[in-house]
């Protein structure tokens, strides 16, 4: 036999060996599928069990000790996206993220060694995988059932995605409320100290003041009182935002800004601020009472932290993404670039320097805009002022916030 014949025989032997392995695997799989069909048939043939499974509000996945899926109910079909005949006989790992496959196999073995009713993964976030590959959060209860074909494991699966979203929202709101309480407590205390101090001076008969001094102290008391009023208004507004859903309507912006200018007249006069407002701002959809507070925060900050005197411009423009951009420019010192990404966050997440400059009000602005399907931006350069802007839908319904920003 020459070299070529030897090579041929060797390859032929390998192919035969591989074919035998494939045939053996096929035989083994046929035996397994026969066993699975037998087990599934027992359950499907029991009207009581079948009726019970389909009456449950939870998804049910039944497996054997080899982690093969024996049966699922209609709810399981709905949340995982598979039909029953697509899953029966398949490994349970098909419904579990690949990163958990190894650990899950050992968990199944451990459960079958000591089967009992219990919650799976207590204290751990569990996830399932749909047919389309998307992962979702689940809660799983475990039990077992003894049949003529042996013990079967039952997994009761609940899709808790919405519940987790609500829990996260509540957690975020509580954290923000804690932040606001902390910040407001300091603001109220500092402001009240000034009011009480000047009031006591004026009422102390041991002191004599000139008319000019008396007027100066009264102005400070009035200014501090306005600040206290604004803090209380922001707190009441925050409660409204958290608890209330509103119906949006088309808004004429110029009348809202004119009202804000009236509210801030004392500050405008005191700082000698010059404000230039576009003659006709574009209309958009929102909730007027909340939008007025956005302008109040933006304009009051522009006056307080603008130049000397403050020079402010207000305008609007239509964006290509279907939004109207409203902007307010000042001639202040600007904001350090490292702070720009956090300027609309909760007060406790910001440096103290930003809280004194913006803080509480801008965090409320962000929450208002989130409720109204809008968003805010800030552009600034040290020594060249800042431009604060917010965006509202030009039409009533725009849903995807990420698409809006792109």
Radius of gyration: 34 Å
* Low-pLDDT regions: 347-359, 398-406
Q: Tell me the count of domains.
A: 3
CATH architecture title of the largest domain = 2-Layer Sandwich
The proportion of residues in beta strands is: 15-25%
Average pLDDT over all residues: 79
Shape: elongated
SSE order, one letter for each helix or strand: HHEEHHHEEEEHHEHHEEHEEHHEEH
CATH class membership of the largest domain: Alpha Beta
Q: What class, by secondary structure content?
A: alpha+beta
Helix content: 40-55%
The number of helical runs is 13
Quick one: how many beta strands? 13
- The CATH homologous superfamily name of the largest domain equals Histidine kinase-like ATPase, C-terminal domain
Main sheet overview: 6 strands, antiparallel
CATH topology of the largest domain: Heat Shock Protein 90
Distance between the termini: 72 Å
């Amino acid at each position: 036999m020459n070299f070529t014949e030897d090579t041929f025989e060797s390859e032929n032997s390998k192919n035969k060996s591989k074919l035998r392995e494939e045939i053996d695997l096929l035989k083994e799989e046929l035996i397994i599928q026969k066993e699975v069909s037998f087990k599934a048939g027992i359950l499907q043939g029991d009207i009581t069990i079948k009726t019970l499974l389909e009456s449950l509000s939870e998804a049910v996945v039944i497996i054997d000790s080899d982690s093969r899926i024996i049966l699922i109910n209609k709810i399981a079909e709905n949340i995982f996206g598979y039909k029953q005949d697509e899953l029966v006989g398949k490994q349970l790992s098909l419904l579990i993220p690949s990163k958990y496959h190894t650990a899950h196999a050992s968990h199944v073995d451990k459960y079958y060694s000591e089967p009992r009713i219990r919650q799976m993964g207590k204290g751990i976030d569990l996830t399932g995988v749909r047919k389309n590959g998307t992962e979702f959060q689940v809660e799983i209860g475990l039990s077992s059932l003894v049949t003529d074909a042996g013990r079967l494991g039952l997994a009761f699966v609940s899709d808790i995605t919405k519940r987790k979203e609500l829990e996260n929202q509540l957690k975020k709101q509580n954290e923000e409320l804690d932040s606001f309480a902390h910040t407001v407590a300091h603001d109220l205390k500092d402001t009240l100290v000034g009011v009480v101090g000047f009031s006591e001076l004026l009422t102390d008969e041991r002191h004599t003041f000139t008319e000019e001094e008396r007027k100066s102290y009264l102005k400070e008391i009035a200014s501090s009182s306005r600040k206290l009023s604004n803090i209380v208004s922001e707190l009441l507004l925050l409660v409204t935002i958290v608890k209330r859903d509103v119906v949006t309507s088309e808004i004429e912006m110029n009348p809202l800004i004119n009202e804000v200018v009236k509210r801030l007249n004392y500050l405008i006069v005191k700082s000698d601020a010059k404000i230039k407002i576009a003659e006709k701002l574009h209309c958009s959809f929102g909730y007027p009472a909340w939008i007025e507070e956005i302008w109040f925060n933006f304009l009051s900050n522009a006056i307080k932290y603008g130049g000397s005197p403050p020079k402010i411009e207000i305008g609007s423009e239509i964006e290509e993404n279907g939004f109207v951009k409203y902007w307010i420019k000042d001639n202040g010192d600007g904001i350090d670039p490292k702070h720009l990404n956090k300027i609309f966050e909760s007060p406790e997440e910001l440096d103290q320097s930003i809280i004194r400059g913006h803080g509480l009000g801008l965090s409320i602005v962000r929450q208002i805009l989130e409720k109204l399907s809008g968003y805010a931006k800030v552009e600034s350069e040290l020594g060249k002022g800042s431009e604060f802007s917010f965006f509202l839908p030009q039409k009533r319904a725009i849903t995807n916030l990420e698409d809006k920003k792109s």
